[in-house]
Structure formats: structure tokens, C-alpha cells
């Protein structure tokens, strides 16, 4: 039976005799769980007993105090006393009290060690006991073989030493494969969760040293780490290691790693690696052919070549959409002309198919001034990645030709876009133009050329960190001309992308405060944002400097700096700051920018974005609504997320024109490469675009948005997507993010729209042999083909129907026709009247077509109806269908892809759903194989150069 | 459902039909419960629990037997059937429930068994079930959706112990459970446990422990009304014993205000009213006559009305008579000790009446009027009343008389302001509480999404159901 009061024992505490006190404490300890509320009245006395250092049972007193505080829900004090209770506190006791205290203690330990790690000068001292408890708990978990949680906890508390220990211990007892799993797990945590950059690199460095000491190191993990660390010497080390042995397999692995690096690392890293490797090669007496090959791969030429081959070969553009948009939008109006230019550029991005220009010379001739600039630059988008031919194709327009300065400037920009991120071959040419004209900026003609040259240089030399180019661009900037200055500022940012270089930032920031030109300030603030790409907390200082500036243009830059510095981190502090600015800044542009920036920060947590911005999408401020749309477009780009579509759809009916524009563009970004199966809204959205473009009542901005959106949703001959995260390495796709960030500046300057092309990633699997040839063979896809098909093309009536529509129709006849139509429908006749509007017809035809398809499927399989609602489970089918090498494989489709192990070609890396270039092992290399010729090879041999078309002639005719 | 009930009433239903209907209702409740598990919306379970109150009367062996056989695994079946003397049905026709049995449903069936045993008066059996099985079962699960059900189950565990007069043994279990539920943020369970612990202390008259306890705990904010009401009542009770009459008065009025004004809670209201009368008397106020004439309460409040009368008259003799007359009843109400404290109030009232009627009166006359033994005790009492602020007067010790000061204009004092302030505070807090209790439906902007309509209907239905008159199982 429980005692009903603790008063007698509490009274004993007041006695002089120490033995009595001890006795009282022991008795109180037994009843504290029930009578804590009474004992709490005397808590001070008990604490005093603990503080009395001569008292032998002071630990017991601490324990009792801890228990009382625990019952009083004051966990901090409870932990404090539990810690000092030392061995009186039994860590192994099975009770709610002990569990709670331990979990709180661990929380506290993590908090303290974080504090300690982050401010080196801080006086934070972690109590020994706390560390003791922490380590004891970890040891317990290690004994229970719960290694992953131990690793997670130790990384949380910045205890790299424990992680290293575990992995080393495991190496002794476990198979290497399991250990590699652990390493991979650690790597994932390090790259996705750890927010402290210096600690992250510490982890990565230690992992590298562990891996390289393994008997069978996993080089792909190392390559991931190289990308994360941006460490060229490590890359060189890896390659030389791999090539030391004569084994083919290792050589192939080296090639695969090289391809991965091209895909995911910065140009600076590639450049430096190439330089070091060639030094190595030239030092040796006989240059190793494999190293030369790796140098070649790292130059990016083969990758670009493969991509462009894929896009060229599988080009599936729906030219009808484009033609119809061209006919509906009056090209004399420059905004519409630009709209068609961009639509065409995106639709054909990377396909090298510029037939639209050639067959519409008259239309092209209507381009004036800057729309001519954009039109020429569009060639760069279309030929993006065509490194071998790019220069030749643009030759007729480049400076030195007889064209206007707008074509010249545009062509330089185009050249930059072609070589985006792989600018080694062309950067010097572009630089020359910057240097030549740099001193005479301010002159109208020269300004336009400089604008193109600066942008081109920036794009081509993106992330190269080249100081010389930077200085050259700075000359242009300092001549203080609004047109060239803005481009130069952007170019400087692009060159220094992600360097976080302090003197660069100081230069740019001080000039931004000096100049009077808003364009330049804006260019500079975006430039500063670019310089801080991926810098996270290292950019905090400049962020707060910008955000607190009185000039709204610089605050605008501050928002973008957060966007790029914290891109994809989902950092809470950054989000908080952005949300605050989004609702409190006095300037609309800043608010818009900060909402857009949310999209960048949450790239990895894209599912949370619709919920987060849902309320903002109903803001009274149209700029915030516009920002919401773009934020969704950016974060959910290419993901086809239904919730994002649900938020965006109402925005397409917004009362403000530019909000509608943003919503249309964002929808296309979200729904890119989706078909009816993967997202049921696609058809509706596409019809919406068409109807906006053809409707007379829509305003210019909305129509521009719709045209742009049509281009994006069917981009790259429908074979590209916007991929902001590299599937294979889990790193962010820098090029895509930069492309998106500069693209969003099209609000101020349409030519920057072309930057979106940087974000387009071909969706393909390209298998290559050791000799970098693409053999013809087949891959299995364990799914149903219809799930990943192209959306059906729009079927268009002949132009006859158009003429009929455009003739004026009297209201009475219209009514009569409507009546006729109605009666017709009732009769359910299949034949349609010629007078019917073309959209009606197409949509009807489409729907009948859809019905047919559905019927067909129902015959084929029984589970089609569930298909749409329930994915993942029913999508898998055991009987695969065959895909050829170099075909379109959607990101969602990758997980259903399998290579047949018994075939002649198997990937050198265990296949885990990676797209892009896959290096293959050829099991019978002697046998002949038919290979697919790349664009480069085709051009080298027999293909004649495409005929240049002449803008000027047509213009003169006007 | 209402239609069905109509028919049933018309046709003098057979027991089987009633059973079937009951089972249907319960199973309907189970479905709501699974909805809670899916949507994390506690309101569905809340509704189920409320429905169970009305079902409780129709609960019988057959219904329980059916439910246990259908929904539970062997482990649970065996002992539950043993307790209710039910049979295990191995008949194949009885389709075993398909799919996973949610712990929530399992707990609900346990709760139903508790109802059944309690209503049948099988206390020792129920106690055995509670101690042997249910306590262990509760510890096994850690789910937020069990919060509301656990709160109920704890209530009946404690209630059983109370009826068996074995309050001490359960106390430590209650305290332990309170700790765990606080850590898990199971607000309803914590709230329920807090009231149970308080009740436990009060029933054994351990007021000092109870006051220690309330000083150190805090009732979670998100608890149901019934728990909050009880909590305030117990607070009032403890505070009144501890001589904090004004706090106590606040608490008891809150409790009365929050209590449901329906027949289900009549027992609770009566005790609250009784306490209220005593506290008002102790603070020196006299309740209005209308207070005792509330329909349905006239009879039970009669003794208290008599006491009030005695206090009002300030007549010790009548007071003592009333006290002896209702002695047993007051002990039963556990209010006797409070009533005895009224003696001094009776005297004070007497003095006040005297001071109102006479501007000057000799101590001797006071003795006679108040039936006091001698002048010195009268002097003592008057001086104490002056100090307590009951009357505003002066004693002339030499000449042995009391002289009242002139009554000031009450509007020249701060009193009206204080009253006004008090009322405004009350209204404001009522307003705030009402706003906090409101639920805002999710954005109406996206109602167009088709499949939402269904859940919208559900939501409306639920809201309607919850807005119906509040019933709860007070006793």
C-alpha cells in the first residue's frame, strides 16, 4: 500500500544527522513517483543537499530532484540533475522517465555540439556526463547493430570520429558490400541533410580516404564525392588510379566516371582536371591513349554529341502547333514576334532542326531591332550542344558579315548558348569581341554587339572562374552603358558562378551603388546571386547586406542570392527570411522575387511547395501571385505534380494579365513531357494554350505566356525535360538552376528567355562502347508502352477552315449555325461540317481518338482503369517491351528499365535507373556491330552544311 | 436511422431486431473510427464515443458476443468472453472481419465490455478485467488516435475502483499514466487522468495532496468540455476547503457555465449548485431566491435554501436547528465541514443587519439580538467584522456601544468600476473562448475538385452532429 504523504520523510531532511538525511532520501526516492507533487514543495532543500559536497548521498538527491522536475514537465532541469546524478541514474532502467531523459539528453548534446562546432570561439562546453550518456547510448545501439541510426546521430552531433570508427570496425567484420552501403548512406546524409558546408567537406574527405583504402573501392561513390567537393586533384587521382591497371573493366569505369562528371560537375573542375591530366600525359614518354580519351570525354564534346544525336534522331516536334500560333499572333507586333521566336526555339531546342526559320522567311523578315536579336539567338538554342558545327552555322551572322548589329549581337549570344557550359573551343573568339568593343561601349551599335558578346561569353564560360575574362567584362561594365553594362554584369556573375569570390562581390556591389542605371544594378544584383550559387551560410553576410539595402533593386538581388545560395537545401532559415520578405517588403519586385526564390530553395522538397505557397497564391498582390506560379514551376519542374497543377489552374483565370502569363508558363514547366496517363490535366492545359493564342480577346501578355508555354511543354522535340536534380549523383543540376534563375529575368528583358534552354536535359539512355561508338541493341522496359508515349499530336484542319473562320459571321447566321450544330449533335453524325471551328474539330477528333485508344487498351489488359488512379504498383509489368539504344526514356520510366545480363552489351556500372550516357562492356568485341552515327560523325563525312538563310534580303524587300 | 427507429417503435420490436440495430450502430461507429485513423481527425472518434452513450442502454450479452467474435483475435476473444460469460462461436457463417483490426476498434470493444459489466453491477469482475488485462493493453499501444478512447477507459477503471472503495491502489497507476500521456501529448487522456487523480484525492479527503497536485500541473488546453468542467469543479472544491473562497467561486461558476444544461448532467449540476450556494454564503453573499427555484432542482436544493435563510436572517438559533436537521444529508454531500464554517457568517450577517438598522446600538443589545453569551464576545465579533470590512462602524469601548458610519454614496467609490471591469473581463474571455472553439473550413477556392465533395458532405454531417445538443455521461 502506498504511503499517502511524504511529510515525515521531508521533515527528516531538516535533521542534523546525516544518516537520517540519507535514510530520508532513500525513502523519498521510493515514493517520488507518486508523491512528487508534495515533494516538489521541498525541492530547494533537496537541491541544497546535492550542492553540499561533503554529503555522501548527494547523487541520490540529484536523482530525486531530476525525477521531480521530470514530473513537473521541466525537462531541461530534469536532464541537468540526471546528469549530475551520475551513476545513481540508471541508464538501463526500463521506464518512461529514463527514456525521456535520455532522449532529451541526446537532443541537448546535439544542440550543444552544433553550437560548439559552428562558432569556434564560443565558450560552449559540453558536460562530460552528457557526452558519456550519448556515447553509452550509441554503444548500446552499435551492439544491437542499428548502425544507420548511430551514423545519423553522430553526424547530427558533428562526431565524425564515431562514424569513422564504425565504418573501420565494420570493415573488419563485415563484407565490403555492406560497408559500402553504410558509406553510401553516410554520403547521402552528408549531401542532403548536413547543412554546414565545412563539416560536409570534412565528412566527404574522410569518406574518400576510407574508400580508397578498400580492396574493391566503389569509384562511383568517389565520383559523387568529387562533384560535391569540387576537388580536381581528387579526380585526377581517381583517374590515374583506375588506369594504372590494365584491366578493361577499370578503364570502362573511368570512362563512365568521366561521363558522370561532365554531366554533373562544374566547368571549373573539368577544366582543371583536363589541364592536370594533359600535363601528366605530356610528361610521360608514351602518352596513354586512355588518358587522352578521358580528356576527350571531359571536354564534353562526346556527351554533347550523344545528346544532340539523340535529339536529332528522335525529333518529334509537332510543327502544327507552332504554325497555328504563328498564324494567330500578329507578327508585326514585336512581343508576338518574340513569342513565336521563343516557342520555336524551345520546341526545337537541341534538335538542330531550324526548318521553321527556313520555311518562314517572310515572317522572319518582320523581326526588328531586339526581336531580331532574339531571333538570331534562337539559332543558338536550336543548335545547342552542336559543338562541332555551331560556329559554321552561325558564320553568316557573326560580326564581319553584312548583317545588322542586332543579328551580330544575337549570333554571339547564340554562339554562347551552343557552347553553354562547354565553352573551351569558342570562349576566346567571344572574348575577342568583348575586348575589341569594350572600350567603345556607349555607341548604340557597339552596345548591341557587346550585349550579345557579354552574354555569350558568360554562358559559354559559365562557372569557369576565369579571372581574365572577368576583368575584360568589368571593362565593359565600367563604361556605364545601360545596354552592355547589364549583360556584362550578368556575364561576370556567370563566369564566377558559385565561386563566392569576395573581391568579385565587393566590386559588383560597390559599382551597383555607384551607377545610375537601373538595368546595370539589376544585372549586378543577379550577378551577385550567381556568384553565391550553392554557398549556403557563407553567403549570409552579403544576403543581409543586400536585403537591408534601401535600393529595392539590390533587395531584389538579395532574394535571388538566397534562392541560389540555398538552392535545393530547404533551409528553414532561408525560407523564413523569404516568406518574411514576400509579405512585408514595400517593393512589388522584391516580393515577387522572394516568392520565386522559395521555388529554388525547395527544389528537393518540391512536394511541400504547393502547400506552402497555396495561401500566397491567393494574395491580394498580383506580383506575389505571379511569384507563386513561377515558384511552383521551378520547384516542380518536370515532376508533373498534381497538387502543383491544382494550385496553378485557378491562377490561369486570374484577373491580372501577367499572373495568367506566369501560371501558363509554370504549368508548362510542371507538365513538361507528361502525357494523358501520367497527368490527366495535360490535354486540358494544352487546349487552354491553343484557345488563348487563337482567341481575339486575350491580351498580349497572356498570349505571350501561352506561346512560351507551348514551346516549353513540347520542348526539344518533346525529348527533353527540366531536370533540376541529377538523378544519378543526387547533386543539383547547376546549369539548369542557373538557366531557370536567369530565365525568370525575362520579366524585364525578353532575350534572357533563351536561358531556359540551359535547363533542358535530354531524357535518354545512350549506351556507348569503349571506343565511344553507339552500338545498336535493345533494352528492356518492364512497363506498358502507353504510359510513356508522346502525347498525341494535334491534328489540324487545312488552311481552308481558317479562311472560313476569319470571314465575318453575322450573329443571325451564327445562331442558325449553332442550331444546326446542335441538331447535328443530336443526330450523332460522324461527319462534321466544314464550317465548324477548327479547335472544336480537333478536340473532338482527339477525344474520339482517345476513346479508340482506351478501347484498345481495355482489350489488351484488364487493369487499365486502375492505371490512372494508382501508379507505381500496376505500372510494372513482367513482360517487358524492347527499346532501342538511344531512345527516349522518361525519368519516371527509368526505374522500369533493365539490361539483359545475357546480352552482348551490359553496363559497366550495376544499373540502378540512371539515365544519360551508359558505358557498356562488350562481351564479344571482335564481332562486328552496326553502330549509330552521331551528328558529328555525319557532319564530318558527307553531310553538307545547312544553307544559310538571309534575313537581310527579306528585310530589304519590305 | 431515424426512420428505422420509427418503425421499430411502431412494431414493438423483437429483441433480435433491437440487437441488430444496436450492432449496426456500433459498426457504424467503428467505421467512423477507422476514418479517424486515416484522416487524423479526432472528431470522428469523438462522435463515436458520444453515440456509444446512447447505445449503452441497449448493450447486452448477444451484442457483445457478436462483436467480440467478429472483430477480435483469439487472444482477446478468450478472456473477454470469459468475463461476460459469452460463448466462442466457431460457426463459419459468422464472417470474421476481413483485414487488419485496428487497435482503436479493439479498445472500443473493451470499453463496451466495461460498460456492460458496470451496468450489470459485476464490479469485482470488471476490476479484475481492468487490472489484469486492460492496464497492460493500454501500455502496449502508442497511438495518438487512441487518445480519446483511452481517456474513457481510464475513467471507467478509476470509477470501478471508486465503487469498490479501493482508491489508493489505483493512484500510482494513474500518476504513471499521466506522466506517459503528458510526454506523448495525449491531451484528452492527460486531462481525464488529472480529474481522476483529483477526484481520487478528494474522495479520501486528502485535500493537501490535492492542492499540492493542482499547484504543479496544468490542464492541457485541448481537452473536451466535460473534462474541463470537472476539473473546474474539483478546483472549486479544493479551493473552498483551503479557504480561497473567491478563487473557488470563480471556478465553480466556470464549471456551472461549462456544464451541459441537459438532464444527463443533472447530478453534476446539483453538486455544483450546492457548492456554489455554500461558497457564495461563505464569501458573504446571499444567493437570489430564484436560484433555488430552478426547475428540477427545487427539491434537492431545499436544505441549502434553508441554510441560506438562516444565514440571511443572521439567526444562530435557526442556523443550528437547520444544521442538526440536515446533518446526515450534508455529510453525504461532503459539504458538512463547509457548512459549519458558516456559523461566523451567520453572526456577521446578523451584525450587518444590525448596523444597517441602527446608527448606534449598545453591545448588550447586540448580545441579545444575536443570542451571544456576553458583551465581551460581542465586542470581539464586532471588531472582527469591522476589520473584515463587513461593516463600517466604530466601537466606543468606554460607553459600550457601536456607532455605524454614514453610508457613503456607492457611486463615489471604486466598486461600480470594479464590477464593470469584472463583467467586461468575463464577456471578453467568453468571446475569446468562442472564437478559439471555431473551426475554419479549408479554402473554399478549390471546391471544384470533384472527389472533395464527398468528404465535404461528411464534414458537414459531422459538424451538424457535433452541434446537436451536447450530451455527456455525467453522473
TrEMBL record, chain A:
GO terms for biological process, alphabetical: proteasome-mediated ubiquitin-dependent protein catabolic process; regulation of protein catabolic process
Molecular functions per Gene Ontology: enzyme regulator activity
Keywords, sorted A to Z: Proteasome, Repeat
Region (Disordered): 816-877, 935-958
Sequence ranges of Basic and acidic residues compositional bias: 838-859, 949-958
Source taxon at top rank: Eukaryota
All copies of domain 26S proteasome non-ATPase regulatory subunit 1/RPN2 N-terminal, residue ranges: 5-315
Domain 26S proteasome regulatory subunit RPN2 C-terminal positions: 763-932
Key word Repeat present: yes
InterPro entries reported in the protein's UniProt record: 26S_Psome_Rpn2 (IPR016642), ARM-like (IPR011989), ARM-type_fold (IPR016024), Proteasome/cyclosome_rpt (IPR002015), PSMD1_RPN2_N (IPR048570), RPN2_C (IPR040623)
Biased composition annotated in UniProt, kind: Basic residues: 816-825
Record-level GO cellular component terms: nucleus; proteasome regulatory particle, base subcomplex; proteasome storage granule
Protein task: Acts as a regulatory subunit of the 26S proteasome which is involved in the ATP-dependent degradation of ubiquitinated proteins.
Family membership noted in the UniProt record: Belongs to the proteasome subunit S1 family.
PANTHER family the UniProt entry points to: 26S PROTEASOME NON-ATPASE REGULATORY SUBUNIT, 26S PROTEASOME NON-ATPASE REGULATORY SUBUNIT 1
Full protein name: 26S proteasome regulatory subunit RPN2
Species, as recorded: Wickerhamomyces ciferrii (strain ATCC 14091 / BCRC 22168 / CBS 111 / JCM 3599 / NBRC 0793 / NRRL Y-1031 F-60-10)
UniProtKB/TrEMBL annotation, chain B:
Gene, per the UniProt record: RPN3
Organism: Wickerhamomyces ciferrii (strain ATCC 14091 / BCRC 22168 / CBS 111 / JCM 3599 / NBRC 0793 / NRRL Y-1031 F-60-10) (Yeast)
Domain of life: Eukaryota
Protein family (similarity comment): Belongs to the proteasome subunit S3 family.
Gene Ontology cellular component list: proteasome regulatory particle, lid subcomplex
Domain PCI: 229-409
Ranges for region Disordered: 438-459
Keywords assigned: Proteasome
SUPFAM superfamilies: Winged helix' DNA-binding domain (SSF46785)
Protein name: 26S proteasome non-ATPase regulatory subunit
Taxonomic lineage of the native organism: Eukaryota, Fungi, Dikarya, Ascomycota, Saccharomycotina
GO BP: regulation of protein catabolic process; ubiquitin-dependent protein catabolic process
Record-linked PROSITE patterns: PCI
Any one GO MF annotation of this record: enzyme regulator activity
InterPro entries: CSN3, PCI_dom, PSMD3_C, TPR_PSMD3_N, WH_DNA-bd_sf
SMART domains: PAM, PINT
Amino acid at each position: 500500500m502506498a504511503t499517502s504523504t511524504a511529510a515525515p520523510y521531508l521533515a527528516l531532511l531538516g535533521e542534523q544527522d546525516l544518516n537520517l538525511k540519507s535514510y530520508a532520501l532513500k525513502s523519498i526516492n521510493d515514493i517520488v513517483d507518486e508523491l512528487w507533487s508534495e515533494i516538489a514543495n521541498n525541492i530547494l532543500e533537496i537541491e541544497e543537499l546535492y550542492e553540499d559536497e561533503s554529503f555522501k548521498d548527494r547523487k541520490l538527491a540529484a536523482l530525486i530532484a531530476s525525477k521531480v522536475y521530470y514530473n513537473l514537465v521541466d525537462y531541461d532541469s530534469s536532464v541537468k540533475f540526471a546528469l549530475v546524478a551520475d551513476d545513481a541514474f540508471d541508464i538501463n532502467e526500463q521506464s518512461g522517465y529514463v527514456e525521456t531523459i535520455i532522449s532529451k539528453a541526446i537532443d541537448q548534446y546535439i544542440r550543444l555540439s552544433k553550437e560548439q562546432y559552428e562558432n569556434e570561439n564560443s565558450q560552449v562546453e559540453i558536460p562530460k556526463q552528457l557526452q558519456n550518456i550519448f556515447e553509452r547510448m550509441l554503444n548500446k545501439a552499435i551492439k544491437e547493430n542499428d548502425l544507420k541510426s548511430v551514423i545519423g546521430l553522430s553526424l547530427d552531433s558533428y562526431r565524425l570520429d564515431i562514424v569513422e570508427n564504425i565504418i573501420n570496425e565494420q570493415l573488419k567484420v563485415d563484407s565490403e558490400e555492406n560497408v559500402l552501403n553504410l558509406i553510401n548512406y553516410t554520403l547521402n546524409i552528408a549531401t542532403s541533410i548536413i547543412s554546414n558546408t565545412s563539416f560536409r567537406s570534412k565528412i566527404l574527405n574522410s569518406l574518400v580516404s576510407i574508400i580508397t583504402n578498400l580492396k574493391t573501392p566503389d569509384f562511383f561513390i568517389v565520383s559523387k564525392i568529387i562533384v560535391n567537393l569540387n576537388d580536381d586533384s581528387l579526380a585526377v587521382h581517381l583517374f590515374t588510379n583506375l588506369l594504372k591497371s590494365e584491366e578493361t573493366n577499370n578503364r570502362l569505369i573511368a570512362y563512365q566516371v568521366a561521363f558522370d562528371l561532365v554531366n554533373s560537375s562544374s566547368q571549373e573542375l573539368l577544366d582543371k582536371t583536363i589541364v592536370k591530366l594533359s600535363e601528366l600525359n605530356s610528361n610521360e614518354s608514351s602518352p596513354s591513349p586512355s588518358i587522352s580519351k578521358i580528356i576527350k570525354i571531359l571536354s564534353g564534346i562526346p556527351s554533347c554529341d550523344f545528346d544532340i544525336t539523340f535529339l536529332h534522331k528522335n525529333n518529334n516536334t509537332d510543327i502544327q502547333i507552332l504554325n497555328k500560333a504563328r498564324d494567330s499572333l500578329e507578327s508585326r507586333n514585336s512581343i508576338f514576334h518574340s513569342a513565336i521566336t521563343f516557342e520555336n526555339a524551345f520546341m526545337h531546342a537541341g534538335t538542330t532542326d531550324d526548318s521553321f526559320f527556313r520555311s518562314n522567311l517572310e515572317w522572319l523578315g518582320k523581326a526588328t531591332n531586339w526581336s531580331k536579336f532574339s531571333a538570331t539567338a534562337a539559332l543558338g538554342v536550336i543548335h545547342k550542344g552542336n559543338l562541332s558545327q555551331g560556329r559554321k552555322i552561325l558564320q553568316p551572322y557573326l560580326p564581319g558579315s553584312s548583317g545588322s548589329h542586332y543579328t551580330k549581337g544575337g549570333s554571339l549570344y547564340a554562339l554562347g548558348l551552343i557552347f553553354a557550359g562547354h565553352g573551351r573551343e569558342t570562349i576566346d573568339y567571344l572574348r575577342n569581341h568583348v575586348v575589341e568593343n569594350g572600350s567603345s561601349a556607349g555607341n548604340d551599335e557597339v552596345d548591341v554587339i557587346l550585349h550579345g558578346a557579354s552574354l555569350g561569353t558568360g554562358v559559354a564560360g559559365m562557372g569557369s572562374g576565369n579571372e581574365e575574362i572577368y576583368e575584360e567584362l568589368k571593362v565593359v561594365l565600367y563604361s556605364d552603358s545601360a545596354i552592355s553594362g547589364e549583360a556584362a554584369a550578368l556575364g561576370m556573375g556567370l563566369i564566377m558562378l558559385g565561386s563566392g569570390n569576395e573581391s568579385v562581390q565587393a566590386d559588383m556591389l560597390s559599382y551597383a551603388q555607384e551607377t545610375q542605371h537601373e538595368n546595370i544594378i539589376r544585372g549586378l544584383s543577379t550577378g551577385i546571386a550567381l556568384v553565391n550559387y550553392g554557398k549556403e551560410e557563407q553567403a549570409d553576410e552579403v544576403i543581409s547586406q543586400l536585403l537591408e539595402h534601401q535600393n529595392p533593386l539590390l533587395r531584389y538581388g538579395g532574394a535571388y542570392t538566397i534562392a541560389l545560395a540555398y538552392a535545393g537545401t530547404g533551409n528553414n532559415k532561408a525560407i523564413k527570411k523569404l516568406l518574411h520578405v514576400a509579405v512585408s517588403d514595400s517593393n512589388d519586385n522584391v516580393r515577387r522575387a522572394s516568392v520565386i526564390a522559395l521555388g529554388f530553395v525547395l527544389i528537393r522538397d518540391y512536394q511541400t511547395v504547393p502547400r506552402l505557397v497555396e495561401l500566397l497564391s491567393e494574395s491580394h498582390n498580383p506580383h506575389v501571385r505571379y511569384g507563386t506560379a513561377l515558384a511552383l514551376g521551378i520547384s516542380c519542374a518536370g515532376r508533373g505534380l498534381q497538387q502543383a497543377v491544382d494550385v496553378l489552374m485557378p491562377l490561369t483565370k486570374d484577373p491580372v494579365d501577367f499572373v495568367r502569363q506566369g501560371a501558363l508558363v509554370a504549368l508548362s514547366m510542371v507538365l513538361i513531357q507528361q502525357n494523358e496517363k501520367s497527368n490527366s490535366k495535360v490535354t486540358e492545359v494544352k487546349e487552354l494554350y491553343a484557345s488563348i493564342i487563337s482567341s481575339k480577346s486575350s491580351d498580349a501578355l497572356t498570349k505571350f505566356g501561352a506561346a512560351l508555354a507551348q514551346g516549353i511543354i513540347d520542348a526539344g522535340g518533346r525529348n527533353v525535360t527540366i531536370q533540376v536534380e541529377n538523378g544519378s549523383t543526387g547533386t543539383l543540376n547547376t546549369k539548369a538552376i542557373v538557366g531557370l534563375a536567369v530565365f525568370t529575368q525575362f520579366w524585364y528583358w525578353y532575350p534572357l528567355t533563351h536561358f531556359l534552354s540551359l535547363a533542358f536535359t535530354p531524357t535518354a539512355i545512350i549506351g556507348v562502347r569503349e571506343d565511344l561508338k553507339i552500338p545498336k541493341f535493345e533494352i528492356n522496359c518492364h512497363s506498358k508502352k502507353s504510359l510513356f508515349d508522346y502525347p498525341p499530336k494535334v491534328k489540324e484542319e487545312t488552311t481552308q477552315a481558317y479562311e472560313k473562320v476569319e470571314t465575318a459571321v453575322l450573329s443571325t447566321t451564327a445562331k442558325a449555325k449553332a442550331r444546326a450544330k446542335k441538331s447535328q449533335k443530336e443526330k450523332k453524325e460522324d461527319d462534321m461540317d466544314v464550317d465548324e471551328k477548327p479547335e472544336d474539330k480537333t478536340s473532338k477528333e482527339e477525344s474520339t481518338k482517345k476513346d479508340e485508344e482506351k478501347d484498345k487498351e481495355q482489350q489488351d489488359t484488364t487493369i487499365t482503369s486502375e492505371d490512372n488512379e494508382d501508379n507505381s504498383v500496376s505500372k510494372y509489368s513482367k513482360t517487358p517491351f524492347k527499346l532501342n539504344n538511344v531512345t527516349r526514356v522518361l525519368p519516371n520510366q527509368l526505374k522500369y528499365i533493365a539490361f539483359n545480363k545475357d546480352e552482348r552489351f551490359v553496363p559497366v556500372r550495376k544499373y540502378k535507373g540512371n539515365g544519360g550516357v551508359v558505358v557498356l562492356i562488350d562481351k564479344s568485341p571482335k564481332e562486328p556491330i552496326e553502330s549509330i552515327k552521331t551528328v558529328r560523325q555525319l557532319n564530318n563525312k558527307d553531310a553538307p552544311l545547312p544553307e544559310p538563310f538571309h534575313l537581310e534580303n527579306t528585310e530589304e524587300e519590305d | 436511422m431515424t426512420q428505422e427507429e420509427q418503425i421499430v417503435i411502431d412494431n414493438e420490436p423483437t429483441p433480435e431486431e433491437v440487437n441488430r440495430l444496436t450492432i449496426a450502430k456500433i459498426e457504424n461507429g467503428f467505421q467512423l473510427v477507422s476514418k479517424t485513423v486515416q484522416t487524423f481527425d479526432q472528431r470522428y472518434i469523438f462522435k463515436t464515443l458520444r453515440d456509444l452513450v446512447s447505445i449503452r442502454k441497449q448493450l447486452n450479452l448477444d451484442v457483445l458476443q457478436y462483436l467480440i467474435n467478429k472483430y477480435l483475435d483469439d487472444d482477446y476473444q478468450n478472456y473477454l468472453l470469459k468475463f461476460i460469460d459469452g460463448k466462442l462461436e466457431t460457426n463459419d457463417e459468422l464472417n470474421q472481419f476481413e483485414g487488419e483490426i485496428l487497435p482503436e476498434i479493439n479498445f472500443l470493444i473493451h470499453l463496451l465490455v466495461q460498460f456492460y459489466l458496470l451496468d450489470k453491477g459485476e464490479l469485482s469482475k470488471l476490476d479484475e478485467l481492468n487490472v489484469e488485462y486492460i492496464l497492460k493493453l493500454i501500455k502496449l499501444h502508442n497511438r495518438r488516435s487512441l487518445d480519446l478512447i483511452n481517456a474513457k477507459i481510464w475513467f471507467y477503471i478509476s470509477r470501478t475502483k471508486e465503487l469498490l472503495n479501493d482508491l489508493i491502489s489505483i493512484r500510482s497507476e494513474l500518476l504513471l499514466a499521466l506522466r506517459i500521456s503528458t510526454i506523448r501529448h495525449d491531451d484528452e487522456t492527460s486531462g481525464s487522468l488529472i480529474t481522476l487523480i483529483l477526484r481520487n484525492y478528494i474522495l479520501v479527503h486528502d485535500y493537501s495532496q490535492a492542492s499540492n497536485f493542482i499547484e504543479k500541473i496544468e490542464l492541457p488546453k485541448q481537452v473536451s468540455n466535460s473534462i474541463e468542467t470537472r476539473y473546474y469543479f474539483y478546483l472549486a472544491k479544493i479551493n473552498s476547503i483551503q479557504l480561497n473562497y473567491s478563487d473557488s467561486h470563480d471556478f465553480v461558476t466556470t464549471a456551472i457555465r461549462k456544464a451541459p444544461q441537459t438532464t444527463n448532467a443533472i447530478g453534476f449540476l446539483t453538486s455544483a449548485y450546492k457548492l456554489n450556494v455554500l461558497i457564495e454564503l461563505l464569501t458573504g453573499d446571499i444567493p437570489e431566491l430564484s436560484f433555488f427555484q430552478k426547475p428540477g432542482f427545487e427539491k434537492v436544493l431545499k436544505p441549502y435554501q434553508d441554510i441560506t435563510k438562516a444565514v440571511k436572517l443572521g439567526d444562530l438559533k435557526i442556523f443550528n436547528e437547520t444544521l442538526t436537521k440536515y446533518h446526515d444529508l450534508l455529510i453525504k454531500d461532503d459539504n458538512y465541514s463547509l457548512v459549519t464554517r458558516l456559523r461566523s457568517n451567520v453572526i456577521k450577517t446578523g451584525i450587518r443587519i444590525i448596523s444597517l438598522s441602527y446608527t448606534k446600538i449598545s453591545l448588550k443589545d447586540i448580545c441579545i439580538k444575536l443570542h451571544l453569551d456576553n458583551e465581551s464576545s460581542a465586542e470581539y465579533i464586532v471588531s472582527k467584522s469591522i476589520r473584515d470590512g463587513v461593516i463600517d462602524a466604530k466601537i466606543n469601548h468606554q460607553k459600550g456601544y457601536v456607532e455605524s458610519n454614514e453610508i457613503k454614496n456607492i457611486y463615489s467609490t471604486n466598486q461600480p468600476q470594479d464590477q464593470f471591469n469584472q463583467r467586461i473581463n468575463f464577456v471578453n474571455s467568453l468571446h475569446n473562448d468562442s472564437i478559439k472553439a471555431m473551426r475554419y473550413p479549408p479554402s473554399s477556392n478549390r471546391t471544384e475538385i470533384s472527389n472533395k465533395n464527398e468528404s465535404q458532405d461528411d464534414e458537414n454531417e459531422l459538424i451538424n452532429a457535433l452541434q446537436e445538443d451536447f450530451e455527456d455521461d455525467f453522473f
